Amino acid sequence: MSTMLPDTLHDSTILLWDRLYDAFIGLPDPRLARTREHPLIDIIAVAICAVICGADSWVAVETFGKAKQPWLAQYLGLPNGIPSHDTFGRVFAMLDAEQFQQHFLHWVKTVWPSDHGEVISIDGKTLRGSHDRDAGKHAIHLVSAWAHDRRLVLAQRTVDSKSNEITAIPALLALLDLKGCTVTIDAMGTQVAIAKQIIQQQGDYALAVKDNQETLHTDITLVFATVADAQPSTLPDHTRTVDAGHDRIEVRDYWVITAAEDLDYVNRNGVWPAVGGIGKVQRERTLHGVTSSETSYYLLSGTPTAHSFAHAVRGHWGIENQVHWVLDVTFSEDQSRIRVGNGAQNFSVLRHIALNMLRHEPSKGSIKTKRFRAALDTAYLLKVLQV
């Protein structure tokens, strides 16, 4: 990207943009050569900055660009100024969503190299505003990967409209370095083939077990009920966590059974690879004096302990609280009406880029506050872009 920048820029400023440039410069431009009034890398860079600063539509991206054009011109070529909102919308609608995702993944790997041993959570989310009834287009459903310890969105895959998450998860996992990591997936992804893939990629798994695996669920439930009646010396490994605040108390108890005879019983056909334990979580939540409880069961690989099991389960809840909730509440993802072509998928990637950068900027404050601050203060926006 530095080849397009004004010669007067300091080297440190050029380096600021180099990582984005290196990640996205090879992205194929879908436009005809004669229609490329604005360089693709400029379009992407302006859009990223705009979304960091609160833009939630192509009109908002253009508005940001025009308001900040003198500042942006210090770092970008902008041979014909700021593109119109129609240009932003048309280019991102045409841009190959899978290729854009691949370049996003390359950027993540470059800026935040993989950390072996962490929890990677896989979960799906529907972009509710992306449907178009008149065109017969269903809402887009994405499956995302979240690195709990690094607090990063790693990658996403679009679920085919005629399929479900089971087909998208293997493709998403194939993009990731799972060596030494524990992959957590909800019951939808508790499939033998998916478990085998995780093991083949040198990872471990913590798979939720519900009625979609009825026999397995029944067997695990029976083993825990049987062990609970045993002598105290044979009780499973256990740990407890307690969270409190705002008239809320949550107590979570975690148990893990690793006895060979119990694992042989739940995996007597030997179809599940590298089974190392079964887990049970009991959640008790008291809110304004009203208490509710829930019990969940898991199939675990490797050499799990109650502590590592608790870390994995809590890590999985992170994708709901720190990704999906933030995207809905702070980025207004569910209200977005971007739906032409690949626009919705690609704008989702822009949100993930912005979220990763904002979360890793070390100053205190919520994501909402950081976005507002970045919109007001270009010096702070530069700090966000430098993470």
List the helices and strands and how they pair.
Blueprint: H1 11-24, H2 40-52, H3 58-67, H4 69-72, H5 85-94, H6 97-111, E1 119-127, E2 140-147, E3 152-158, H7 165-174, E4 182-185, H8 192-200, E5 204-209, H9 214-228, E6 237-244, E7 248-257, H10 260-266, E8 275-287, E9 290-301, H11 306-329, H12 343-360, H13 367-376, H14 378-385
Parallel strand pairs: 1-4, 4-5
Antiparallel strand pairs: 1-2, 2-3, 5-9, 6-7, 7-8, 8-9
Helix pairs in contact: 1-6, 2-3, 2-12, 3-5, 5-12, 6-12, 13-14
Highlighted features:
9-stranded mixed beta sheet; 9 strands; elongated; 387 residues; 20% strand; alpha+beta; Transposase Inhibitor Protein From Tn5, Chain A, domain 1; single chain
Output the CATH topology of the largest domain: Transposase Inhibitor Protein From Tn5, Chain A, domain 1
Q: Rounded to an integer, what's the Rg over CA atoms?
A: 23 Å
Average the pLDDT over all residues and give the rounded result: 87
Largest pleated sheet: 9 strands, mixed
Please count the beta strands (DSSP E, at least 2 residues each). Answer: 9
- Enumerate how many helices there are, as a single number: 14
Write out the strand line-up for the largest beta sheet, numbering strands in chain order. Answer: 3-2-1-4-5-9-8-7-6
